[in-house]
Automatic annotation (TrEMBL):
Mg(2+) 1 binds at D66, D69, D87. GO terms for biological process: phospholipid biosynthetic process. The active site is at D91 (proton acceptor). InterPro entries: CDP-OH_P_trans, CDP-OH_PTrfase_TM_dom, CDP_ALCOHOL_P_TRANSF_CS, PIP_synthase_PgsA1. This is Phosphatidylinositol phosphate synthase. It comes from Winkia neuii subsp. anitrata. Its cofactor is Mg(2+). It is found in: Cell membrane.
């Protein structure tokens, strides 16, 4: 839900930058790809090596700029079905890198025991749900149904794990990351169930 309310803010902030990029002939797809490269590189290099604060800072900046490609596409009249497909596909790669890196962090830096096992399991579940939620919507739409319902958007999921990682990075309990992954996994599961139910009603 945070993603919906934040769009007007990001539009106001990034429209001037989008205008500059338009003058430089930078394509929206190039912006999309660059954001994914930075996200994957930051997640895979900083989080597993326990540089959580640096990782969170970079990922917050990239996440905040996530709407830049769309703004640029509208400004340059280059909105396209392929651009939408590319953005959605690369978002899944970025999400996998973030949740996978947090799972790897748990495997490398939490003491062996129940806490580590629980966190790894939740990390795997969060990674799966992060892919299942958008897939359920995409598949529903391909069948002519609507599946936009859900208790958490992509932005909400990333903010949740970002807060957990940030709190842990400044000395709070590592259980904050565990709790964040649990929230993402549960929210994802609930959203998938909601989408299954609403599509069942529409398709019979």
């Amino acid at each position: 839900m945070l993603g919906i309310h934040g769009r007007s803010v990001t539009k106001a902030i990034f429209t001037p930058l989008a205008k500059v990029l338009a003058k430089w002939k930078v394509s929206p797809n190039a912006v999309t790809a660059a954001g994914t490269v930075v996200t994957v590189a930051a997640a895979c290099s900083l989080i597993p090596t326990d540089h959580l604060l640096a990782g969170v800072i970079v990922l917050v900046i990239v996440m905040f700029c996530d709407s830049l490609d769309g703004i640029l596409a509208r400004l340059t009249n280059k909105q396209s079905q392929f651009g939408s497909f590319l953005d959605s596909t690369l978002d899944r790669i970025s999400d996998g890198a973030v949740f996978g890196s947090l799972t790897l962090w748990a495997a490398l830096h939490l003491p062996a025991g129940a806490h580590q096992i629980i966190t790894i399991a939740l990390g795997i579940c969060a990674t799966v749900m992060a892919a299942a939620v958008p897939y359920a919507r995409a598949k529903a739409e391909s069948l002519g149904a609507n599946a936009t319902v859900g208790i958490a958007e992509r932005t909400d999921r990333l903010i949740t794990v970002g807060i957990g990682a940030f709190l842990t990075s400044i000395g709070a309990s590592t259980w904050f990351i565990t709790a964040a992954l649990a929230l993402v996994a549960v929210a994802g599961f609930v959203t998938v169930m909601q989408r299954l139910a609403t599509v069942k009603e529409q398709l019979g």
